[in-house]
Design a protein that fits this description.
The complex is a heterodimer of chains A (about 325) and B (about 550). Chain A is built from 13 helices and no strands. The model of chain A has no long low-confidence stretch (mean pLDDT about 85). Chain A is mostly helical. Chain B is globular. The longest helix of chain B is centred in the N-terminal third of the chain and has 19 residues, at about 1-20. By secondary structure, chain B is α+β, with helices and mostly antiparallel strands. Classes of the chains: A mainly alpha (about 325), B alpha+beta (about 550). Chains A and B meet through helix 2, helix 3, helix 5, helix 6 and helix 7 of A and helix 1, helix 5, strand 10, helix 8 and helix 14 of B.
């Protein structure tokens, strides 16, 4: 098992180097120039040239790439232009906010989606089944900024249950439990936005898996030997139906991150998604590179974890 | 089952209507934008306290309390001497002072400098500094700080101050601790208008001397002389400042705490204001205006100046390097052919005014209304196009031009395209993100028409000159002379105006410049933009036209 993990991690290294190179080229080929943000809008050529030299932007692209890779190999990923701090220091400072948002959205939406999927499968072709299908697909089709605004207007402005933006109430500095409940109040709407967007896929997969499993002989046997229906469905059938769901949830991490960018902007949530947005606008190359690398590594790791979860769920799968 | 589905569809439909409602500012109870209880007369800036018709506006200022300001971008660093970026200045300017500050008519007033004299030849400015001023860390402020700040920071890194002063400044002397003397090579008129905290914040020599200034730790935890002291900066979320108990202006500041909350989405910022999560926001968008006006707890205010740019005009740039805009008739044809009233109404929601030339009408001392007028007239435009040799072809088309613009100008660009299409001119829109658009206009010069928000700044020499003098036709410099306009007479007049001390004389020179430029139309000035800002009504005395927004601010909610 540990040899398997090691092999997978070693395999990931060339992949990540490839990602770094492709990202580097893409970012630099895209139009735009970081110098305007760095130097202001009324400088002269000499000043801009000096600023370019200071940040190494006067070097040929191939040289910049070479230097970047050499430094990266030594664990040096550079300083952000805008923040003038090491890039990973900035990313890690923002990580908890994004983990909280995407993590809670993922857990919540998966739980709800599995439940909806089971309901839909057990009452296939009923009104409930159709309603679930339509609702989840509709959320799936909504743009995050639109859905987010809708939730804000209803639940923050009209009903006044939740705040409009932010992660904490800046007017107060809460501690302990009060702090936690403050964050939860702020989390509710962005989490719901992100979660609703991701309901559809898992719901459909669960429904499909359950439909298959419920027709299997072992389910009929379980019913025949008099097990309660709930136990048959929730324990026997669901466990098998969840296999494709686990794969999907794993691969959705990347998609979820994309959704987090928009959600974090709408709700002024201080996470990595907004950092990515700011860095793109400012052409903060080192920070952009580091964020992409960070996301790439996360996806690699999550895929590995997903594969390992398989073994836990399906004893027939063995790693060697 | 069908009934359930129908019900459900209805529910969804109603939800969609809810979500759409903020985009339609048609609330029947709200007054149209023009009839708001505050009007900005040309030239006068209405301070928030007088524009807010609240019964308590005249009440005595209260001490204490917290004000939360919504800002759109994360400043990154907080040294106002290193950058002209609005994001940094909106926050940092409240921790520092300039030698001078602006009153609500944008006239220079004492700040770190108590008094000053100008020599009769206009070459020497002497400033007497306020006594007993200390930095937030307790060290005394002296003339050495001023000299160091200009020489080592502003003239190295602050692009506007650097561009304005480096060629004309001869030297800075400090005869004693409380006196600073600026010596110029030639008479230099605009100095007093470029010494406020936005253009020239004074920084502590004892923390920056001998260090790598751009990497100094004080850039993210500043020590200033200003009304508020730095407390914390949670990147991407908020910045907290607290009252400077030893502020050198007696009795100020009044607030205990000031928090800058970063809210990138302007609709979210407006909603946060409505709910009282923030007390003041800059830049209210058209669709949000009517809703905020209907809110009794909120007051809309506006000023033509501020740390993000002063006296700004949305300006088309004609690329005069190549046909068709190397011809005067072609440029004038576009000036007549574009319906600016339509832009004002449909794009700007009637915020601002139709421009008449390169200097905004609100900068009243320098503004010249007696220039050639280009009323919307498509017949005349067609005649001029014919005259320029751009007659209609067999297919009814005259020519095709490429209009490069940032996404923020997309709606303006669409109006221009539609207007010109009626004349047989095909305007191809190249909509780019702002940074990419700047590169294409100012570095690659790959455009026929460009557009930008050109800001006059506190003095024409600061923000106007750069776009029109031939010495500023530069590659890779945003907001330089992008049209590549070159006119010896205009060049000379700008030089003369900068070195004329007498304001009336200067105004005459600028009046002449405006006449020539408007006749030549190297650029086309569309709208003098004037963004709404909005505040909670319990907040008073915000200096919305200046960098030091909160120096005198107070709140009823303590």
């Amino acid at each position: 098992m540990s040899r398997y993990i090691l092999r997978r991690l070693i395999q990931a290294v060339p992949l990540l180097i490839g990602i770094l190179i492709i990202n580097f080229v893409l970012i630099h080929v895209a139009p735009g120039d970081p110098i305007y943000l760095l130097a202001g809008d009324a400088g002269d050529e000499k000043y801009y040239a000096a600023m370019r030299a200071r940040f190494g932007l006067d070097q040929p692209l191939a040289m910049q790439l070479y230097l970047y890779l050499v430094n990266a190999a030594q664990g040096q990923f550079g300083y952000s232009y805008a923040y003038d701090r090491p890039v990973f220091e900035i990313i890690f400072a923002r990580l908890p906010a994004t983990l909280l948002l995407t993590g809670s959205a993922l857990v919540l939406s998966t739980l709800v989606a599995v439940w909806l999927g089971v309901v839909a499968a057990r009452r296939a072709h009923s009104a409930a089944d159709h309603t679930i299908a339509v609702v989840t697909l509709l959320f799936y089709g909504m743009p995050a900024f639109w859905l987010g605004q809708l939730l804000v207007i209803v639940f923050a402005i009209w009903l006044d249950w939740f705040p409009v933006q932010g992660m904490t109430d800046v007017r107060h500095s809460y501690q302990g439990l009060e702090y936690a409940s403050d964050v939860l109040r702020h989390l509710a709407l962005p989490m719901t936005t992100l979660g609703l967007l991701h309901l559809a896929l898992v719901t459909r997969l669960t429904r499909m898996g359950m439909r298959e499993q419920l027709d299997e002989d072992y389910v009929r046997t379980a019913h025949a030997k008099g097990l309660p229906v709930a136990r048959v469905v929730n324990y026997h059938a669901l466990r098998n139906a969840l296999l494709p769901v686990v794969t999907t949830v794993g691969t959705q991490i990347g998609t979820l991150f994309t959704g987090a960018v928009l959600t974090e902007i709408i709700f002024a949530w201080p996470g990595i998604g907004r950092l990515l947005y700011d860095a793109t606008l400012a052409r903060d190359y080192p920070l952009l590179m580091a964020i992409f690398l960070f996301v790439a590594v996360s996806v690699v790791v999550v895929n590995l974890v997903t594969d390992l979860t398989y073994a836990f769920l399906d004893p027939r799968v063995r790693f060697a | 089952m069908k009934r359930v589905f129908l019900l459900f569809s209805l529910l969804l439909l109603s939800l969609m209507l809810i979500a759409c409602s903020p985009a339609t500012p048609a609330a029947p109870t709200s007054a149209p934008v023009n009839n708001t209880p505050f009007a900005t007369a040309a030239g006068a800036v209405v301070p928030s306290s007088t524009s807010a018709p609240t019964p308590t506006a005249a009440a005595t200022a209260k001490r204490g309390g917290t004000v939360v300001v919504g800002v759109t971008s994360d400043p990154g660093q907080l040294n106002p001497g290193l950058t002209t970026a609005g994001g940094t200045h909106a926050v940092a300017d409240n921790m520092f002072n300039g030698l001078l500050q602006f009153n609500d008519k944008l006239e220079p007033q004492p700040s770190l400098a108590e008094t000053w004299t100008v020599s009769t030849d206009g070459k020497t400015y002497t400033f007497n500094l306020a006594k007993g001023v200390t930095w937030h860390d307790g060290k005394p402020f002296t003339s050495a700080d001023v000299k160091f700040t200009f020489e080592q920071i502003l003239l190295q890194f602050h692009s506007r101050t650097k561009a304005g002063l480096e060629n004309v400044l001869d030297g800075i002397d400090t005869p004693n601790e409380n006196t600073v003397v600026f010596r110029f090579k030639q008479p230099y008129a605009p100095l007093l208008r470029r010494l406020d905290v936005v253009e020239a914040a004074i920084l502590p020599k004892h923390l920056y001397d001998g260090t790598d200034i751009q990497k100094n730790a004080a850039n993210t935890a500043p020590i200033g002389t200003g009304p508020y002291k730095f407390k914390e900066y949670i990147k991407g979320d908020h910045i907290t400042l607290v009252r400077n108990e030893n502020y050198f202006k007696k009795g100020l500041p009044l607030l205990d705490t000031v928090i800058f909350k970063i809210i990138p989405n302007s609709t979210a910022a407006a909603q946060a204001l409505e709910k009282g999560e923030v007390d003041y926001i800059t830049g209210v968008n058209g669709p949000d205006i009517a809703r905020l006006q209907a809110n009794k707890d909120v007051v809309l205010v506006k000023a033509p100046a501020g740390p993000g740019g002063s006296f700004c005009i949305d300006t088309l740039i004609f690329n005069m390097r190549k046909p068709p805009f190397d011809k005067l008739e072609a440029r004038q044809a576009f000036a007549y052919g574009i319906n600016r009233q339509q832009i004002l109404e449909q794009v700007q929601f009637n915020q601002g005014r139709i421009a008449t030339g390169p200097i905004a009408s609100t900068m009243s001392w320098a503004y010249n209304p007696n220039v050639m007028k280009y009323a919307f007239d498509q017949v005349k435009a067609a005649e001029l196009l014919d005259k320029a040799g751009l007659a209609k072809g067999a297919d009814g088309k005259r020519l095709k031009v490429v209009f490069v613009h940032a996404t923020g100008f997309a709606k303006t660009a669409e109006v221009v395209r539609d207007n010109m299409a009626q004349l047989g001119v095909e305007v191809e829109l190249a909509t780019l993100e702002v940074n990419a658009a700047n590169e294409r206009m100012f570095t690659k010069n790959d455009f026929d028409i460009g557009i930008g928000s050109y800001c006059n700044g506190p003095d024409p020499e600061i923000g106007v000159t750069r776009a029109y003098v031939s010495s500023n036709i530069k590659v890779g410099v945003p907001f330089s002379n992008g049209a590549a306009y070159s006119n010896k007479q205009v060049d000379d007049l700008f030089i003369q105006a900068a070195s004329t001390i007498d304001t009336a004389q200067r105004a005459k020179l600028y009046a002449q410049i405006q006449e020539i430029l408007v006749k030549d139309v190297p650029y086309w000035w569309t709208i003098e933009t004037e963004l709404f800002r909005a505040q909670r009504k319990e907040v008073h005395d915000l200096r919305i036209w200046a960098g030091d927004l909160l120096e005198r601010a107070w709140t009823e909610r303590t």
